[in-house]
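Human:
I keep going back and forth on a fold encoding question. Comparing notes only helps if you start from a blank page. Show me how you would write down a chain together with its backbone fold. Write it directly below this note and I will take it from there.

Assistant:
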Amino acid sequence: MPAEVRVFPDAETLGVELAGRVLARYDASDGPYLLGCPGGRSLRTTYRALAAPGRRLDRLVVVMMDEYVGAPPDAHFSCSRFAHEEIAAPLGAREVWLPDPDEPQCHDARIEEAGGVDLFLLASGASDGQVAFVPPGSSREARTAVLPLATTTRRDNLVTFPEFRTLDDVPLRGVSVGLGTIGAARSLRLVLHGADKRAAAARLLALDAFDPAWPASIVHDHPDAEIWIDEEAMA
């Protein structure tokens, strides 16, 4: 069954609405609340809106999707730096969990021992529909692993991180959750906004079931998944 689609006037409105949903679920929970988070641009308006009320979400566990293998922790493209500076610190989060390239399987084990991810926020690659570093053709059941970055994903990174001057500057490998990790979460919310995501949005919305050739379509194979999109990406 295809995922429900919710359309918003712009990225800021989308971020405020999604942040409100996250906070409502957090408030209705007890104990640690595991929020699956991507880095990059797509969820920035949501992260800012989550921090706007000035609350300390001291039960929040930020579960990051991926990291570049060999990335220095202070690098401009580091998912660890992004997680701590742009998510955890403004929210007063309890912990940040990142996959370890030396022991990738431990990321899934840690999530499972904690009772699973409550809500996974997702973004889609503009040109290949990747989620995290999961490339087209990946298994629906795959778990966290070290992966070679697809050339399409690396090209998208030139836009996400303008500090990369050429494709040669973009790392070749990353450690990433798998589609099985994502699919095991209780809820999924995939965010698409901006003109550069129009082709990705059209491809995703043309599907009504999971297609391995477009990893973001994992949302069409989950009982509680929605696509949140702005009008510019729908144009």
About this structure: The chain has a mean pLDDT of 94.
